[in-house]
Design a protein that fits this description.
The chain is mostly helical. The two termini are about 30 Å apart. Helices cover about 70% and strands about 0% of the residues. The protein is elongated and about 50 Å long.
Length: about 130
Amino acid sequence: MEREPIKSHKDLKVYQMAFDAAMKIFEVSKKFPIEERYSLTDQIRRSSRSVCANLAEAWRKRRYEAAFVAKLSDCESEAAETQTWIEFAVKCNYLDVDTGRELYGIYNQILGSLVNMINNPSPWLMKH
């Protein structure tokens, strides 16, 4: 069975995981207290969405390995930041432990994929 060629960043499994996770965070964060609207709620939504946005940018920079890797590194940072906000949400009792653990685990998978792409960018680069 042959895989479909990747034509866009949206075809990347890591992008799909990050997008789904960001949407789940959006849904669960709707229940966060109103006083967190301009802090934790905004931060966790922003960082989770930024993983996807930076992946889209990285994909467009595949001509240049250094630029591609730099953008992937930004993705990695945003994913790690999202994990930190997940921890805060759980500790503040805004997010139940099981949901927090599930989301944190998804971001561990995302981070693993990003690190693999960073450490071995050549399969992803555009051929000149």
